[in-house]
Amino acid sequence: MKPSLSFLLALLFFLGQAAGDLWDVGPPLPSSSSSSFPGVDSGSSYSSSHSSGGRGSVSQFFSNVTGFVDDRGTCQCSVSLPDTTFPVDRVERLEFTAHALSEKFEKELSKVKEYVQLISVYEKKLLNLTVRIEIMEKDIISYTELDFELIKVEVKEMEKLVIQLKESFGGSSEIVDQLEVEIRNMTLLVEKLETLDKNNVLAIRKEIVALKNKLKECEASKGENAPLVRPSPTPGSCGHGGVVNVSKPSVVQLNWKGFSYKYGAWGRDHSSQHPNKELYWVAPLNTDGRLLEYYRLYNTIDDLLLYINARELRITYGQGSGTAVYNNNMYVNLYNTRNIARINLTTHSVAVTQTLPDAAYNNRFSYANVAWQDIDFAVDENGLWVIYSTEASTGNMVISKLNDTTLEVLNTWYTKQYKPSASNAFMVCGVLYATRTLNTRAEEIFYYYDTNTGKEGKLDIVMWKMQEKVQSINYNPFDRKLYVYNDGYLLNYDLFVLQKPQ
């Protein structure tokens, strides 16, 4: 342990006093010139500046040294020190102050380190928010009011932190000022994005409400002599001439697991007994694009939009994104097999399993751009279907009508359309419609097969999409919509059918 400064100075002072004592008293000298004290004559005095030899080094420590012989012949010497009183108390006070300052410095340094870590964390959050907003600026993805509110909350939290940091630093620093400017810019950007609403989803929803109100007013005020208009086919019925067009996509929401879960399926349950019942399901696959492990059920579309009131359930045996829901049952391909299963959504248990005869599986004949979807379930006005391929069909699409309770095959049709060249397929009134990719922003309904007549042919109905790949398409007969899983985003389309002449 090193000695303190006050201890060293006190020791030096003590040694100085001891040296002075040695010089105060000397031995008696004879009166003759042969003095025992060399270099000093009788009655003479000298200064330390004149001394030399062995005692010259001693004189460096003293400002003045004098000596003389008194009447008794005794040599008397005196030493004058520059400052005989050393300020020990002031040194101790200085040492105490230095120690207190050191402790305070260490405490403030630890605070600075803590704030630096906090700044680093919030810099990462700020970077993540910046990336999200850049995506919102560059892409045409729709965001709901909830997304904007969540971003605003995060920005406000960072604003509070910056204010606390500035107060703690007793002023401002360069990094805190920079963060404050970036957060302020982000706040303005979020407000601007919310105002612009690039996809116009919120504006469109408001316009739809306004249009519905106008329609109600129109119906209430129309006269008895209004012209007769042929009604559209009733939803859920097949009194039409087939699909002729689709609407532009409406972005409902990103799947609840996030951007990384690009593969999966979603839709609305169709029940022939309760056609207007609302039950929405979302089944994203794991990031391997193969295993179906979790799915969620929502009782209303608003719950789905806000990610609330969901029933999240786990299974460990689903494979691919060919899932469908019909009459409160989920139908899946069992993992690593050609077996199919019916899951009761009330009890969340496997009610029935069945082998799909001769079906190719494990990515043998899946759709283009989508792996592990060899077996694809479909629902329409006529019930439950399954679309697949066999080795005997050389990869062409095979359509089978299933008993939705026992999963037994009721009938089968063989098409001339090679399944891996199609991007997906769905059923409407017993007619298979297949899609293919035109480019990163458009699909095309290019092929149909009518199980009612055995006829097949070509179509050219363009389906616009939000992202590059379509993973699944599910049709709901009641609202006559297509529910499309598009690289993690949940889209839906209105179908337009050809009205048969009366």
TrEMBL record:
Coiled-coil region(s): 176-221
Keyword set, alphabetical order: Coiled coil, Secreted, Signal
GO terms, molecular function: cadherin binding; structural molecule activity
Subcellular location: Secreted
Pfam families (alphabetical): OLF (PF02191)
Signal peptide bounds: 1-20
Secreted among keywords: yes
Domain of life: Eukaryota
Record's GO cellular component terms: cytosol; extracellular space; intercellular bridge; nucleoplasm; perinuclear region of cytoplasm; plasma membrane; protein-containing complex; specific granule
GO biological process, any: signal transduction
PROSITE patterns linked: OLF
Domain Olfactomedin-like: 237-499
Stored PANTHER family: OLFACTOMEDIN-4 (PTHR23192:SF7), OLFACTOMEDIN-RELATED (PTHR23192)
Protein name: Olfactomedin 4
Organism: Cebus imitator (Panamanian white-faced capuchin)
Taxonomy of the source species: Eukaryota, Metazoa, Chordata, Craniata, Vertebrata
